[in-house]
């Protein structure tokens, strides 16, 4: 047995002991859920690869599974990661990498335990696929920045306390160079959130209007004008969190159609069988690719491979949900509820086939359109020549709009 293996085993054993000590001091069945989560964070067992005093122990990321298994077996509560996914998957890695010590101490603990929900103020009506063309302005006034503009497609804005925001602070330089990254308080009176009703009938998305919103410079992440580089950390983590979620075999969208196939033999045809087999194999390949991607993340920051995973996620969800509607025939055309609601999370597997079919249409838009991600994969993963661009050295204020 190598020294490296022995060291990993010892580290895993140490984490199990620490988890058992947490459980002994805060029995899950006798402890308030929020109190337990706070104690877990303070014990360094929230995300073990984060630094000490910030919910971690500076341990290898791969050892998080050891902690999770120990606590799950004891019936400990989790932090409802689907509800706070933007905070966990996008805001937290960005704050950790670019935040000041004061920002890390202020934001990471309430984010992880779920006390404060986060949203993402990036896309705009005129800057979706070309995000760097954004026009929301932030003007410095003393120790504050005054922000005016509009954002769109903002998931969970109606629930969020905080937002990660990029705004233009210098219109006289090329578009990528004049952006700065901020943390915005969504309870500010200048923030207006309006629902965007979707094809599902729900409004999990929102448009957000910012009118003279004052953001203290202490809530800036990174240097002035360096917001595009900071945003790349957010976007790469976003694509990993969307396309690289850990799921079991036949988890996700392939699960419901597989169950229907087994339980309803009268619906089967040879053609549907061949198509389902093909999609089942592709879903399993995507799941295993996601596992490999997570193992690569143990070594450092996410790469552009997450864009490829997100592409696969969107295409498979749409093809599988379409096949499910076809398999169910007339039943597949039914829809359970068109009521206008503002849900806390997206529930693909807990709803009917009609919901899955309609909601999956957004998968190729959210988190970066499939067309943009194809360019990213082509240029940054495969190394193909970049498309010609005429706006690289043109000041943002001089671009045609």
Helix content: 40-55%
Helix-strand category: alpha+beta
- Secondary-structure element order, N to C: HHHHHEEEEEEEEHHHHHH
Shape: globular
Features:
single chain; about 400 residues; alpha+beta; four-stranded mixed sheet; 11 helices; 8 strands; about 40% helix; globular
What does the secondary structure layout of this molecule look like, with pairings?
Elements: H1 3-25, H2 33-42, H3 64-73, H4 85-98, H5 101-113, E1 118-121, E2 137-141, E3 144-151, E4 162-168, E5 179-185, E6 191-196, E7 205-216, E8 220-221, H6 227-243, H7 254-263, H8 270-297, H9 305-328, H10 353-359, H11 370-381
Parallel strand pairs: 1-4
Antiparallel strand pairs: 2-3, 3-7, 4-5, 5-8, 6-7
Helix pairs in contact: 1-3, 2-5, 4-5, 4-6, 6-9, 7-9, 8-9, 9-10, 9-11
Written description of the protein model:
By secondary structure, the protein is of the alpha+beta class. The protein contains eleven helices and eight strands. A four-stranded mixed sheet has the order 1-4-5-8.
């Amino acid at each position: 047995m190598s020294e490296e293996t022995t060291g990993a085993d010892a580290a895993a054993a140490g984490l199990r002991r620490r988890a058992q000590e947490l459980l002994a001091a805060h029995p899950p069945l006798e402890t308030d859920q929020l109190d337990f989560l706070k104690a877990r964070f303070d014990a360094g067992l929230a995300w073990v690869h984060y630094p000490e005093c910030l919910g971690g122990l500076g341990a290898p990321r791969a050892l998080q599974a050891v902690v999770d298994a120990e606590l799950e077996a004891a019936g400990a509560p989790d932090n409802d990661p689907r509800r706070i996914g933007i905070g966990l998957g996008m805001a937290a890695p960005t704050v950790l990498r670019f935040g000041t010590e004061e920002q890390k101490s202020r934001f990471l603990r309430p984010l992880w335990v779920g006390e404060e929900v986060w949203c993402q103020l990036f896309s705009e009506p005129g800057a979706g696929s070309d995000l760097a063309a954004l026009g929301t302005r932030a003007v410095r006034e003393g120790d504050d920045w005054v922000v005016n503009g509009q954002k769109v497609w903002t998931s969970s804005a109606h629930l969020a306390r905080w937002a990660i925001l990029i705004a233009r602070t210098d219109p006289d330089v090329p578009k990528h160079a004049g952006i700065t990254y901020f943390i915005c308080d969504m309870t500010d009176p200048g923030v207006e959130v309006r629902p965007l009703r979707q094809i599902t009938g729900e409004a999990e998305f929102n448009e957000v209007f910012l009118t003279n919103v004052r953001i203290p410079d202490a809530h800036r992440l990174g240097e002035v004008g360096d917001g595009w580089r900071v945003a790349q950390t957010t976007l790469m983590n976003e694509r990993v969190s969307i396309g690289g979620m850990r799921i079991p075999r036949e988890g996700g969208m392939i699960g419901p159609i597989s169950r229907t196939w087994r339980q309803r033999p009268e619906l089967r045809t040879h053609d549907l069988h061949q198509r389902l087999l093909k999609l089942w194999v592709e879903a399993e390949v995507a799941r295993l690719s996601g596992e490999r991607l997570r193992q690569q993340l143990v070594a450092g920051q996410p790469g552009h491979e997450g864009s490829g995973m997100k592409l696969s996620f969107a295409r498979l969800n749409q093809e599988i949900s379409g096949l499910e509607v076809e398999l169910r025939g007339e039943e597949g055309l039914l829809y359970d509820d068109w009521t206008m609601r503002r849900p806390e999370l997206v529930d693909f597997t807990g709803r009917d086939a009609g919901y899955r079919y309609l909601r999956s249409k957004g998968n190729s838009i959210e988190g970066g359109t499939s067309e943009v991600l194809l360019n990213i994969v082509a240029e940054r993963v495969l190394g193909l020549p970049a498309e010609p661009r005429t706006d690289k050295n043109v000041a943002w204020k001089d671009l045609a709009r």
